[in-house]
């Protein structure tokens, strides 16, 4: 199958909102008058971001989910995306699963595939996504203020636990492994929550490299520090509720520095707690208050009684560390 | 050097037109009211689209040039782009050269780098570019009409000749090789010409995979055939003027099916010849009339006297052929 047949069979569908989709030199998008365009690119590499033998349907889902998660973190409404794909060979089974997983999630969010590129090479998936947001309403990393609450959505740490299990570092009961693996391979982008938090959250980002490392981006850009209730964060982890016994270090590593969570971490004024909870309710997404923004620099971990914990160096996952 | 330092050092510059650049979950772009957004993605893979040891400055230039060429083919004005980069390792010499070549061309076109991604993996460069175009004025592949002239910009075939020389298939005198190699490694995107052809050209695309193969996309989408004066096309090749003696087959292969030209092929009504020439003059870009759109299907090659040539199968370069 040639490049053009491949695109026609798996990645071409009638355009809905776009003015022109796959098949010309450029796609053409309509952007509603007065809206800003939010743009993000993510590149996923086999062996680094996913196992080469992962279910292609899950991979298709995740490839778009990580990009939708960036729009969510900006409070932007998904519009469209491009897909550039480097494939070692044409594997129709793989392409069918990948495109189904990808397009099913795209449909859920009304986000259409408008163009891209395919080529032969080591497996690499690069998606660039477009959303729209009214000027001044995007959620930025730089808006946290001293005294703001710090919140996270959903559950943290389970994706990393699944990864550790797949790498043989930890043994999980089958049911728990299944749940955790779902979090690793099929994350849920918090798009509805990001939209609901416009005008409420003072800053936001998505947790992709580990909570503490990612949170430090907000703190650096907002020129502030933070106090984080480690126990409150630990309680967000699904596996923690299972009765499973693991070393404390491992729990903390997963939940504080695990990565691949694709949850939102955000700040909001303490006076806006009711609004945050109402936004979470409307988005049908659980949120947990895990700390507050402080003067100074860096993150201090505290226990449930607010007492300082000796913090290990939880290095965020850095792609060239 | 970590991922964030790498981005800060080589790929972060103050935003000009964008509302928000590198460093948040999304970049934010302003799109002028009423304009459509033209979007294109290209992925370049080491060993397939370029030699791993190519001058990184040239590679930076070419990576953006191929995307600017897609905007040119749509008649869109460049706005901004994202860069996703997979690197085997952090090589500062390479990064410096690559970013300089990339950003120098970006500056020439007022096209700013607003975001992207970096990761570790086999060398892979994915750029997504954004431009704007008034609704209804984009140049499409589908607009050619029977009787239209067929034109190409600039010179064709020299990039392929350089590639053949680098692969040891042909020997070129040093001066000629230098000129041809410049065409292969540093193509000039015809952005000004694309803009000048709005309202004049009936269809357009950029020649990246070889003239005949690319032209067939216009013809299929326009439900037409074409007659091409092979000799007129051959005369566009720079090397053809050098007195170099090569087999006829090789000349034809380079110019008709070579690829990597990044010139525009376009159609325009025969009555618009003066307008085409004026547009080319204003864009300071040479154009050559090479044929006409006909009834039926497929491309017929004719000689300078309009007599049919026995056409070999000039397969366009297909990435999965």
Automatic annotation (TrEMBL), chains A, B:
Which residues are in the PurM-like C-terminal domain? Answer: 146-302
Which residues are listed for ATP binding in this entry?
116-117, 141, 208
Reactions the enzyme catalyzes:
thiamine phosphate + ATP = thiamine diphosphate + ADP
What is this enzyme's EC?
2.7.4.16
* Record GO biological process: thiamine biosynthetic process; thiamine diphosphate biosynthetic process
Reproduce the miscellaneous comment text. Answer: Reaction mechanism of ThiL seems to utilize a direct, inline transfer of the gamma-phosphate of ATP to TMP rather than a phosphorylated enzyme intermediate.
- The molecule here is called Thiamine-monophosphate kinase
């Amino acid at each position: 199958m040639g490049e053009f047949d491949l695109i026609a069979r798996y990645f071409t569908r009638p355009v809905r909102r776009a003015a022109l989709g796959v098949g010309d030199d450029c796609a053409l998008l309509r952007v509603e008058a007065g809206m800003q365009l939010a743009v993000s690119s993510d590149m996923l590499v086999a062996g680094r971001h996913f196992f080469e033998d992962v279910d292609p349907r899950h991979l298709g889902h995740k490839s778009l989910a990580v990009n939708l998660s960036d729009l969510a973190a900006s409070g932007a409404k998904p519009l469209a995306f491009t897909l550039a794909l480097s494939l070692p060979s044409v594997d129709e089974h793989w392409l069918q699963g990948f495109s189904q997983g990808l397009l099913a999630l795209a449909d859920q969010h009304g986000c259409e595939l408008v163009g891209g590129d395919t080529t032969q090479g080591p497996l690499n998936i690069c998606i660039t996504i477009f959303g729209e947001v009214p000027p001044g309403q995007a959620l930025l990393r730089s808006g946290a203020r001293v005294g703001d609450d710090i919140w996270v959505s959903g559950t943290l740490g389970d994706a990393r636990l699944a990864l550790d299990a797949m790498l043989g570092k930890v043994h999980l009961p089958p049911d728990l492994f299944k749940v955790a693996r779902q979090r690793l391979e099929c994350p849920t982008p918090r798009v509805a929550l990001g939209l609901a938090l416009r005008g409420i959250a003072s800053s936001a980002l998505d947790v992709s490299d580990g909570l503490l490392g990612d949170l430090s981006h907000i703190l650096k850009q907002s020129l502030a520090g933070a106090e984080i209730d480690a126990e409150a964060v630990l309680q967000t982890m699904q596996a923690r509720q299972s009765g499973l016994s693991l070393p404390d270090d491992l729990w903390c590593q997963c939940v504080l520095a695990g990565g691949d969570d694709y949850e939102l971490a955000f700040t909001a004024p303490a006076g806006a707690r009711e609004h945050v909870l109402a936004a979470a309710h409307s988005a049908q997404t659980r949120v947990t208050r895990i700390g507050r923004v402080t003067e100074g620099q860096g993150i201090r971990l505290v226990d449930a009684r607010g007492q300082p914990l000796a913090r290990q160096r939880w290095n965020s996952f850095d792609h060239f560390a």
